[in-house]
Every structure is written in structure tokens, then in C-alpha cells.
Write the C-alpha cells for this entry.
Amino acid sequence: MKPYLKWTAISLGSIVAIAHIGVLGHLVRREPDRIQVPTINIPRGTPYSSYKIEAGKDGYTIEYKANDPAILESQRSLSLDKDKKGLFGGGTEMRREWRRDQYTAEGVRNIGGAATLDGEGKSALSAECIAADAGARSQGAMAGSAIAAGVAVPAVMNIPYIGWLAAGWVSLLGNNIGSSAGSLVNSAISDC
């Protein structure tokens, strides 16, 4: 065997042997798998956001509230006891005042009067009926004015001295009659 082949084989064998020893040493000294903590991407919301994160072996859960607290409360109290003895005699004044306000996150004060479906407020059905009635009255008023302007106004315009005034009255009368007729038609069509 030629000497350069002999040294090449010895060098190549030494490199493979050292690599095997290195890999075995790495596997023997390898630490057990560490528990990887998940990366949690917390959603960004309003300044009044709150988070509740629970993590376990099976995973994690996030509870997110955008406006927490949704309603802010402010309480104020005033107590004034005055015993004034002055020039014209004595008097007492005793005043107790307590105020509790609720605000939204935007700083708007709740003044009460919320509508409920079964309470004393307006129901959703009655609100829809009010909106439908308003639209029907508006459409009826426009139709009544147009009919009055096309039919009756030219006839009363020829009245001497007050024709222009009578034309305005007829137009107003057509508007009022059309509004009432629109409301009646709406109540007949819908369940209001």
C-alpha cells in the first residue's frame, strides 16, 4: 500500500472516530427536555382593559375584557352641622347630602331612565312602531302637499285679494291630512 493512502485512511478514520466520540458525549450530557413556556400575545385594547390568564399542562386560556370596569362609580357625601349664634339670634342648620354617580369609561354620567322590555320604559317593539309612524307621517305629509299643490292650489289662487293666502292654507291642510292618512295606513299595515 502506498504511504499517502495509508495516511489518508488513518486521518479519515481519526476524524470519524473523534466525531463519534463528540456526538456520544453530547448525547450523554444532554439535559432532559425543559418545559417550554408559551409566548402569549396579549390583545391590545382600551386603557381600561383587563386580562386573566390561566396556564396549565394542557395549554392556557385568556379572559379579556375591553372596558373593565364598564361602569365607574363616584360617591360624594356632605355633612354640614352649623350652629350659628349671631346678632339676630341663634339658628341651626343641619344638612346631610349623599350622591352616587355612575360613569362610562368615556366619562359620560348615567342619569338613569334606561329602557327595559318589561319594565316601565319603552319596549323595542314600541320604539320600532314610533320610528315607523314617524316615517309614515312624513311620507304622507309629502304626498298630501303634492296632491294639494297639483289639484287645489291652482283653483284657490284665482280668489281675489286672498288667493295667495288661501293657497297656503290649502297646502297646509293637504300636509296635515296626508300626515294623518300616512299614520292610519301604517297602523293598518303593521302591528302597532
Summary: The chain has two domains: 43-112, 124-189.
